[in-house]
Design a protein that fits this description.
By secondary structure, this protein is α+β, with helices and mostly antiparallel strands. The chain has one domain: Porin, CATH 2.40.160. It is 16% helix and 55% strand. An eight-stranded antiparallel beta barrel has the order 1-3-4-5-6-7-8-9. The longest helix is centred in the first third of the chain and has 23 residues. The protein is globular and about 50 Å long.
């Protein structure tokens, strides 16, 4: 019984120290580039797909404890407010745009081989009353 308690305490201690070290590694911002994906627009009773133009943006002023960040679409642009939902190996950044449409960016833990963070960006918007959705894949680098 005593050996079990010692092993359990050692595991808990290792877990706590790993968590503390990982928290220090969280960047305060990212530069994200999405070069591939698919977009769908709804017209005449069905969705039609096409390849969207590549996009890039920055996620800045990340406050994981406050669950907020800012989206910077381009230099000089007004930052967009982001809410953060934390996951085990990723952070989800949710943007509710003025018209009520949603954009979601998920940034995963760093891939040591690639040297960047795999990421996915989804857009759920409408144009002239018709649904337009897009799904991009790419990567983000810590700033």
């Amino acid at each position: 019984m005593r050996n079990t308690v010692v092993v359990l305490m050692a595991c808990v201690s290792m877990s706590i120290s790993t968590t503390v070290l990982r928290a220090d590694d969280d960047p305060s911002g990212y530069h994200c580039v999405f070069k591939s994906g698919t977009a769908w627009s709804y017209a005449n009773g069905s969705f039609n797909s096409k390849s969207p133009e590549p996009i890039e943006f920055d996620v800045a002023r990340i406050d994981l404890d406050g669950q907020t960040a800012e989206l910077i679409a381009k230099d000089g642009a007004q930052p967009g407010a982001l809410k953060i939902v934390r996951a085990i190996n990723a952070n989800h950044f949710l943007e509710v745009v003025n018209e009520g449409f949603l954009n979601l960016t998920t940034i995963y833990d760093k891939d040591d081989i690639a040297g960047s963070h795999p990421a996915v960006h989804s857009r759920h918007i409408g144009v002239l009353g018709q649904p337009v959705v897009a799904q991009y894949t790419g990567a983000c680098t810590a700033k």
